[in-house]
Specification:
This protein has 3 helices and 19 strands. The protein is mainly beta. Strand 8 and strand 9 form a beta hairpin. The chain binds 6-O-phosphono-beta-D-tagatofuranose (TA6).
Amino acid sequence: MQHSAAVWDHKAAMEVIKGSNGIDQVVLRNQQGSSVRVSLQGGQITSWQNGRGEELLFTSSKVKFKPPKPARGGIVICFPQFGNCGSLEQHGFARNKIWSIDENPPPLHPKDSLGQSFVDLLLQPSKEDLKCWPHSYELRLRVALSADGKLNLTSRVKNTIGKPFSFAFAYHSYLSVSDISEVRIEGMEILDYLDNLRQKERFTEQGDAITFESEVDRVYLKSPSTVAVLDHGKKRTCVIRKAGLDDVAVWNPWENKSKAMADLGAREYKQMVCVDAAAVEKPIRLKAGEEWTGQVEFINVASCFCSDAWLS
Ligand code: TA6
């Protein structure tokens, strides 16, 4: 596909294909050969590849494509709940629903439009859905791939007519890593976190970075807008920038939990880490007509190019 950045046609850079679960996926490509795939099942990002064809997201080798359950991997949209703390299913229902493509999405901001391909997916409640969560909402997920390969996800939740409602949200993001022992996460030093392995008790991070020697399942509170996931093995860094999302959940299931999970290989915990831009501690509240936006951007850089500048 030949395009110059000036005449980049986002529709031409987008293709709809059948996923292995039989459900449509949208593929976005850029001129450098990077690509992103998003499934209509759950609005789940199933792949993000750089221009060399390297996959940057983790997907389990034992992945089960059995809708409505989400696949183990990629980036899972958790709405209107994160975890199993409410009355709904774990991580909310959005990941279990079939979304639709908005064929006439609002245009990109002019400053973002050069060379950017994008698609908008929509989730609205059916009559059946309103029985378990009786709120009138529209959830719009914009998936955008920039000319230089950045993956940008923007979610907008609108209270379309009804009574006020509150929700939690997370981009539950499985990053592919060389080996979990080679990974450190920077940007969350001295933050408070809720430890899911200790009844959500509150602690303060003491290390100068987060490293992994056993199972970790935490929600870091009020985190800065940028965190960096350094992988010394792959010599690459994933910089995660977020807006509208106060928290960051960090998860690695380690050995025993991996063995107990039917859709994760016993040793695959080594190749993944979840770093989720999220709004968990303080739910978002919307009155009728109000809209919330939560955005995350993933930037993949060679570690030698990653300096403190990313974190400032
Ligand atoms: O990010 C943390 C977490 O909530 C963990 O507690 C763990 O259960 C994980 O998500 C995966 O959840 P899932 O329902 O996809 O198996």
